[in-house]
Predict the 3D structure of the following.
Amino acid sequence: EIVMTQSPATLSVSPGERVTLSCRASQSVSSHLAWYQQKPGQAPRLLIYGASTRATGIPARFSGSGSGTEFTLTIGSLQSEDFAVYYCQQYSNWPPWTFGQGTKVEVK
Amino acid sequence: QVEVRETGPGLVKPSETLTLTCIVSGDAIGDHYWSWIRQSAGKGLEWIGQLNVRETTSHNPSLKSRVTMSADRSKNQLSLRLASVTAADSAVYFCAKHWDYDSNWFDSWGPGTLVTVS
């Protein structure tokens, strides 16, 4: 099973700041990585797939990069609606598909 | 635009079998791959298993053989059965659509249904 590790667990930021979240895979997943955003009481929402392709309707301030074992999700200028928990997911090797433990982006 | 909704009993007794339903509208379930995913405070997001267009299933080895998944194309619904539940199976259970065949990220999710084992 591929283990996905996200860091940091919590990030305290102010609106307008640039945010960088990290996700590391225990073995190479090539570019088979997705990012999701989850707000309290809601289902995860797809942001990025293929490590760097934005899903339909996702604002350009969200960008993904990386390949192999190291990945980054960047939010260019944090908006109030971006405070949430962010998860990465690998879809390279299965079963199972695996998720990271999440990074919570909270108001500073 | 596909819409997904999970339904379930809310409360299940230990050792019993949990049965959940995923109701899909706006698209035919037979045209896609579907997964069940759960989320508990202790384990984050955990992939349970998936069912494909040929109704072949695969599940998380950690759940051993407790998982059964099926589809009812006439009702456009999917179901998940999890046998011999314990408190560790308490979680919010999601049904999610895969982007496409062999594209195993999840682009449409239901709101989830909370299951408590007690």
Summary: Chain B touches chain A at residues 35, 44-47, 49, 58-62, 94, 96, 99, 103-107, 109-112 (CB under 8 Å). The longest strand of chain B covers residues 91-100.
